[in-house]
Amino acid sequence: MCLKEPLCLTLLVVSVVIFLLGFCGNALVIWISGFKMKKTVNTTWYLSLAISDFVFCAFLPFSITNMAMEEWIFGRFMCKFTSFVKFLNMFSSIFLLVVISVDRFVAFFICWLPYHVFVLLELNHQNYDHTILYTGLKIGTSMAAANSFLNPVLYVFMGNDFKGSVLSKMEHAMADEECTTSRYLLRSSSMDNRASTHI
C-alpha cells in the first residue's frame, strides 16, 4: 500500500477532496441549472458539463482505491469502464468548454496538460526514469481530476446566469419569509386584540 509514502498520501487526500467537492458541487449545479434556472443555451451547456463531471467524480473512488492499494481490485470490466468514463469526461469536457467559451478553456488546459505530457513521455519510457514517470502520472492524474471540481466554480458559480438565478432565488425566499413573518405577526396581533376586547 502506498499510504506510507508522503506523496501518495498527499495525492490520496487531494483526490478525496476533489471527489467530495466535485461530487457535491456538480450535484448542486445539476439541481440548480436543471431544475431552478430558466432554460437557455448557456444553462444547457452548464448542465451538460456538470453531468459529465458528476459522472467522472462518481467513478473517482475507484481510482482512489487503486492508488491507495496499488492494485486494481474491481475486475477487468470496471477497469475498462472506469477508463472509458475518464476519457469520455475528458473529451466531453473539452467539447463543452470550447463551446461555452474559449477564454475559459485555459483552466481545463492547465488541469490536463501535466497528465498528457507524462502520458507522451511514457510512450518513450525507456529514455526516462521510471520513478519520475510514475510520480508525474500520479500528479498529472490528480490535477486532471481537479478539473471536475473546478468546473462548477469557474463556469457556473461565476457565470452571470447562475449568480443572477441564485441571487433572485435567495431574494425571493427572503421576501417569502418576510411575508410569512408579517402575516404571522399580523394574525398574532389581531388575535391579541380580539382576546383583549373579550376580557
TrEMBL record:
Gene3D superfamilies, sorted: Rhodopsin 7-helix transmembrane proteins
Bilayer topology term: Multi-pass membrane protein
Main location: membrane
A single GO BP: phospholipase C-activating G protein-coupled receptor signaling pathway
Residue ranges occupied by any G-protein coupled receptors family 1 profile domain in the UniProt entry: 25-116
Membrane-spanning ranges: 7-32, 44-65, 77-99
InterPro entries: Formyl_rcpt-rel, GPCR_Rhodpsn, GPCR_Rhodpsn_7TM
Localization, UniProt: Cell membrane
Key words, A-Z: Cell membrane, Disulfide bond, G-protein coupled receptor, Glycoprotein, Membrane, Receptor, Transducer, Transmembrane, Transmembrane helix
Top-level taxon: Eukaryota
Recorded GO MF terms: complement receptor activity; G protein-coupled receptor activity
PROSITE patterns documented for this protein: G_PROTEIN_RECEP_F1_2
One of the record's GO cellular component terms: plasma membrane
Family named by the database record: Belongs to the chemokine-like receptor (CMKLR) family.
Protein name listed in UniProt: Chemokine-like receptor 1 G-protein coupled receptor DEZ
Organism: Larimichthys crocea
